[in-house]
Amino acid sequence: MFLTSVAAVDQSKILGAVITDVKKVGQELGEWIVEDTGDSVAEVAVIGGAPGAAADLMNDAFKTSLGSHAKLVFDQPALWQRAKAQDVAENLLQAYPKVKYVFVHNEDMALGALAAFKSAGRTGIKIVTNGGSEAGIKAVESGEFAATVSNTPRSVGEMAIDNVVGLLKKTEGVAKIATVPDMLVTRDNTDQAPPYCL
């Protein structure tokens, strides 16, 4: 058995795995916000996926990486659903109208949050997210998202095939548990973002 995106607790029962480092995703986006805030104090919100496993790891790393100038004021799950994320974003605006940054766990939900912000006439909120899809990269390019972390299905798939073959052939240097490379994408480097799929 070979796994993608997650690794089994008992690794003796699998050939191998290609995983996404969700803790690194959260950390990178938190650090981007810290750098972007500079010396100014800013309210930060999280619109998460579903509580548990990957979402919790990503969230914890994000919160840990926030500096003293980035104040987390809101954290609510949207269950990986765009429509739910739009509702959560509307609630966020009512509770914290001065929010400056919003970390949304994936780009589909981020598009829902963006719709809520646009509807409310709030164009100054900086959205950071995760995925690297064509829609996500375009949103970064246009300035609708401030940043996204690209860790694409294409990269996962290609790496999984290479590693399965390498592990079966016992090729030197092929790791049993390998991490998919990611890339922090901002408006400055959208042209370098890896393709999302074939």
Describe this structure in words.
This protein is of the alpha/beta class and 198 residues long. The chain has one domain (22-151, 182-192): Rossmann fold, CATH 3.40.50.2300. Helix content is 41%, strand content 22%. It contains six helices and nine strands; from the N terminus they run ββαβαβαβαβαβαββ. The strands form two sheets. A six-stranded mixed β-sheet has the order 4-3-5-6-7-9, with helices on both faces. Helix 1 packs parallel to helix 2 and helix 3 (82-95) packs across helix 4 (107-119). The chain is elongated and about 55 Å long. The two termini are 24 Å apart. The mean pLDDT is 91. Keywords: Signal. It is found in: Cell envelope.
Decide which structural class fits the backbone.
alpha/beta
| First and last CA, distance | 24 Å
Annotation, overall tally of beta strands = 9
Shape designation: elongated
Q: Identify low-pLDDT runs.
A: none
Element-by-element helix/strand order: EEHEHEHEHEHEHEE
Q: Number of DSSP helices? A: 6
CATH superfamily: Response regulator
Number of domains: 1
Query: Main β-sheet: number of strands, strand sense, barrel status?
Result: 6 strands, mixed
| Arithmetic mean pLDDT | 91
Radius of gyration: 18 Å
Proportion of residues in extended strands: 15-25%
**CATH second-level architecture:** 3-Layer(aba) Sandwich
The CATH first-level class comes to Alpha Beta
* Percent helix range: 40-55%
Assign the CATH topology: Rossmann fold
Organism: Streptosporangium vulgare
Pfam families: Peripla_BP_4
Family: Belongs to the bacterial solute-binding protein 2 family.
Subcellular location: Cell envelope
